[in-house]
Amino acid sequence: MTVVLDLQRPALRHPEKAHRPDTPTLRKPEWIRVKAPVSREYAETKAIVREHGLHTVCEEAGCPNIGECWTHRHATMMIMGDTCTRACAFCNVKTGLPGALDAEEPANVGRAVAKLGLKHVVITSVDRDDLADGGAEHFAQTIRATREHSPGTTVEVLTPDFLRKDGALDVVMRARPDVFNHNLETVPRLYLSVRPGARYFASLQLLARAKELVPAGFTKSGLMVGLGESREEIMQVMDDLRAARVDFLTIGQYLQPTKKHARLERFWSPDEFKSLEAIARAKGFLMVSASPLTRSSYHADSDFAQLQAARAAR
User: Fold this and answer.
1) Do residues 118 and 73 lie in contact, with contact meaning Cβ atoms separated by under 8 Å?
2) Which SS3 state, helix, strand or coil, does residue 253 take?
3) Residue 96: which region, alpha, beta or left (left: phi > 0; alpha: psi -120 to 50)?
4) Residue 39 region by backbone torsions, left for phi larger than 0, else alpha for psi between -120 and 50, else beta
5) Closest CA to 99 of 86, 124, 82, 87
6) What are the φ/ψ torsions at residue 84 (nearest 5 degrees)?
7) SS3 for 69-122, per residue?
8) What letter would DSSP give residue 221?
9) pTM of the predicted model as reported, rounded to 2 decimal places
10) What letter would DSSP give residue 190?
11) What's the chain's average pLDDT?
12) Rounded Cα–Cα distance for residues 193 and 208 (Å)
């Protein structure tokens, strides 16, 4: 697959009109509401994360599924600190100048995964544009350390785009993650306002290259809806992802973290998500997870098992 990159346009670090104060906030429908986390298992998961000095995207991004996932001890590790070098309009992770990498973090992730007893773990990170390799070697070390401490655990990585970091993806893929995930997040038309530091075709090419480097591996990407995209635009993104040979697509509802973030245009209904899932499956994805509360790592363990079964069946 040949994809032309558009790397010349300057990134807009502070998109204008991400939120219009004069527009009323949409009320959450019943299907998007979740219970507060109160279980004993939730508290135990939190204690293990704290014990090893780790960050999770579950907390930093304010994921609505944290109560359910942590009750099942499914924490998504976020490496390389809690401060991102980018300012995406949809994301609740703080932006600023990150600190130095923690050399002990890969081993601490491995120990925590073993203690949690995870069969499958998702490891993600903040963007680290300040690092020469974007943090690729740190990802590779974390994959290796996780396998050393918890040999039976399959590893899924959800990485940044490594924009302008030549060779970074190769470093990650040499560590052979079981799943390579990179989210497109939204449709191309909305990139400058929603994901200003990124480039749609660069992200698409990253996914295509990951499949080229490890053809037997699984690739995965995710989209949010509710930012003003059209159904037709989503279908075009599906086609682009299939052209890049992506195996697994997740689609979830965007929820505005604060009034300073990108405006929520509308809630998509559960029936609309079912329709999107049916379309995506018809386009050839091995696995599709589409629901209002779907997130990249939501039910990632059971989804991985279904992904393997789908490939075996095909």
Assistant:
1) yes
2) strand
3) left
4) beta
5) 82
6) -100, 145
7) HHHCCCCCEEECCCEECCCCCCCCCEECCCCCCCCCHHHHHHHHHHHHCCCEEE
8) E
9) 0.88
10) G
11) 88
12) 25
Tell me the C-alpha distance between 142 and 202, whole Å.
24
Instruction: Dump the DSSP string for 144-156.
Output: HHHHHH-TT-EEE
Tell me: the pLDDT tens digits for 107-157?
999 999 999 999 999 999 999 999 999 999 999 999 999 999 999 999 999
Residue keyed to tokens 């809690």: 82
Task: Specify burial of residue 219 (Cβ count, 10 A radius: 0-12, 13-18, 19+).
Answer: buried
Phi, then psi, of 224 in degrees rounded to 5: -105, 150
Report the chain's terminal Cα–Cα distance, integer Å: 22
Euclidean distance between CA atoms 238 and 223, whole angstroms = 10
Place of tokens 């940044």: 160
Q: Output the six-digit token pair for 176.
A: 């052979």
Distance of CA 137 to the CA centre of its chain: 19
